[in-house]
Amino acid sequence: MSIELNDPALPTPRWHTLSVDEALDNLHSDADRGISNQEVSNRLAKYGANELIEKAGRSPLQIFIDQFTNIMLIMLMAVAVVSAILDIRDREFPKDAIAITVIVLLNGILGYAQESNAEKALAALKRLSSPRVKVVRGGNIIEVNGKELVPGDVMFLEAGVQVAADGRLLEAQNLQIRESALTGEAESVNKNPNLTLELDASLGDRHNCVYQGTEVIQGRAKVLVTKTGMQTELGKIATLIQDVETDDTPLQQRMTQLGNVLVSGSLILVALVVGIGMLNKGNFADLLKTSLSMAVAVVPEGLPAVVTVTLALGTQRMVKRHALIRRLPAVETLGSVTTICSDKTGTLTQNKMVVQNIRTAQHSLKITGEGYAPTGKFLSDTSAIEVQNFPEVQQLLMSCIFCNDAILQQKDGEWIIIGDPTEGALLVLSGKGGCDAAEWQHRMPRYAEVPFSSERKRMSVLVQGEMGGYVMFCKGSPELTLECCTHIQIGDQVRAIAADQRQQVLEQNNQLAADGLRVLGFAYRNIANLPENGITEADESNLTWVGLVGMFDAPRPEVREAVKQCRQAGIRPVMITGDHQLTAKAIAENLGIAQAGDRVITGKELELMDAQALDQAVIDVSVYARVSPEHKLRIVQSLQRQHQFVAMTGDGVNDAPALKQADIGIAMGITGTDVSKEASDMILLDDNFATIVAATEEGRVVYTNIRRFIKYILGSNIGEVITIAVAPFIGLTVPLIPLQILWMNLVTDGLPALALAVEPAEPNVMKRPPFDPRESIFARGMGSYMIRVGIILAVITICLMVWSESYTTSNFDGIYKPERWTTMVFTTLCLAQMGHAIAIRSNTQLMIELNPMTNPYVWGSVIMTTVLQLLLIYVEPLRNFFGTHLISPTELAVCVGFSSLMFVWIELEKLVIRWWAWKGQR
């Protein structure tokens, strides 16, 4: 008989509350025989394979089709169709329609290239979920694929294997499991099958259970499989990843808004031109051609390409600063971030345990140094001491060396640990004290040991004494190790331990723990003769207490400054970790993320909070401890409901849902799992929190430059539209054909816009709050600027148009040659935009005040575009294709003169702005 996997009477969190016998009874399994092959088949049919199920997404074809739902592209496609019909009617080659179609297709392909990056987070999760595993079925031990596991199977674990399903421990010998990818905790976890835990025990505290995707570090175990597939903790993460709906970035939202405004505006203008023209009994075909030209002029065809190239250039600059962008819009998104939610382990900290304090009967010492390099000082108050002059400290270092299975070695100039990081930190401590671990372990070889167990919380080893006899060294939980001690070492003397001395040790332990340190106690005992059967737990008595060691997963040294810069830039850092609340609080205060007395919310508290309570808490709380993946996701969502623009950093599998939900997910490149990387928008190549600050600066620069060239492009487009719209009302033909407008929008606008995209950062870019990510693309005076500049450009061009039409008619025997004066209009518009590009580099500084070498690309683009424009006039094949006409040097000089007025106007505006600011300060 099998049970229902989703039985509401037995939800997933309750397996850790059951005893071994209760768990076996609930799944109708046997610890020695497992379940029968027939039962395996039944359960496999009922519950499905032990694998993660992917929801169907958009097909590549659907992604490509979706590119053409953009409202601006739809309008261009309509223009292409109407233009082709008119050209075919007039028996002309439809070059305008072909050019527009090509541009539409290129834009579609460009958008497809950005979106078609397949979501690989689930694929990375799947790689964690299907190892080979040993199970017992029907009394026989066999090896099966992880996908074939079912609830009720009994599987075997040993060092080095990956756990293939969630399960309740039945038996375990010295079992340690690394769960950092799932829980975020750096240390491996000691497991104990004999525990029954409280219902509200967090995932990281369920020491009687194991979870899919984690790794066995040492020991072996027999496990009852309780959950498989999407019901596992890993499956929950997969569900969370797939359920997260990704919103458009601020830039995408602004571009959509821009498209809606432009298309709506152009349709209104087209309706006005056609309506008024028809009332004046104008020719419908001519009015339609005017409307087509206006429609093409309104749409900034080159803008998507310029934005994409700008973002791509931003990604290249970010790579140089050790940040890899996986999705282009994330470049600009970084500039809008208001809150950074960071994991602790490996992100804010080095993921390297470092001893910071030791306590003996007489001494309280601080230890300096960073990482695993065995260089540092022992400080008493502020004075360095020589360890050799302090016998009890020397004895403590001996205990660190011998009660240790780790190896400290140097590789490629870097110190690394092989083995448990905690034990590695003890070797580093001994190295700082001048003790060579390898030399001492050779001089005093180990004979026997009692390994660490979660019940005793101690480890003991027996080594040969240097002066004869043997020494047993013991390390472990300070409270439990102290219980085995009858003596205490003070200086070079060993005395019976008094009650007040015991109390002093316990108080020292509490002080170190309150500082967020992991504390170990050390003791030893001299033994005259080697026990016949080695040492046992019974020999862990009559020990001599030596002292305490407090260690810390130290913060990265550069993070404190990075946090300070974040606050200067109006960005709030928040720590979200699976680690203990005291440790999280201590590190947060050390880094400046939190202040003394600030509230810390734990996962248990968060479970009891509804959405409204959490929304109120996230405004002030900057530290969250003992949290699960669902908690991280809730925190990010709550911050977003408070209109915060959230970046989430992380490296574990447990971070993936929150990384995907966040406005920008930031994964660690070195320590990060494949799952976190695939769910992220950006990867830190150096795992350095400070790199986020550099990347944020680049994001702000990119957004500023995007606004700059949008002002440039749309100001020019508005001028074109007004010029085309006014021409019929003053009795002139449309001065520009669609092909010429496309040239201006793609080349005359496009090349200078790309040059403006690499304008260097403003001096105060990281000393101001982020701009509101919900602000309109036209905010902060940008809309009024574009309209104002567009009107000025149109006035200049219309004046030139009126003069040139009269000039060419009167100077060429009265023969009306519209292609000549329209070429002058075309040239004036293009050259005026060159002046605009030079002047728009700064909103306040005059061109003569700017160093031309800070952005030589602007000058290069202006020269190149001017040359290309002249080629359209003076090279016959190009002249014929673009419908231009030869103009004389005098006429060209007139075009240059009129177009220079655009530059003069913008420079005068800057002077007015300065005068107004000066007047306001008086």
UniProtKB/TrEMBL annotation:
Primary location group: membrane
Ranges annotated as spanning the membrane: 68-85, 261-279, 291-313, 709-730, 736-758, 785-804, 824-844, 856-874, 886-906
GO MF, any single term: ATP hydrolysis activity
Domain Cation-transporting P-type ATPase N-terminal stretches: 14-88
CDD domains in the cross-refs: P-type_ATPase_Ca_prok
Similarity remark: Belongs to the cation transport ATPase (P-type) (TC 3.A.3) family. Type IIA subfamily.
Identification of the protein by name: Cation-translocating P-type ATPase
Species in which this protein is naturally found: Pseudanabaena cinerea FACHB-1277
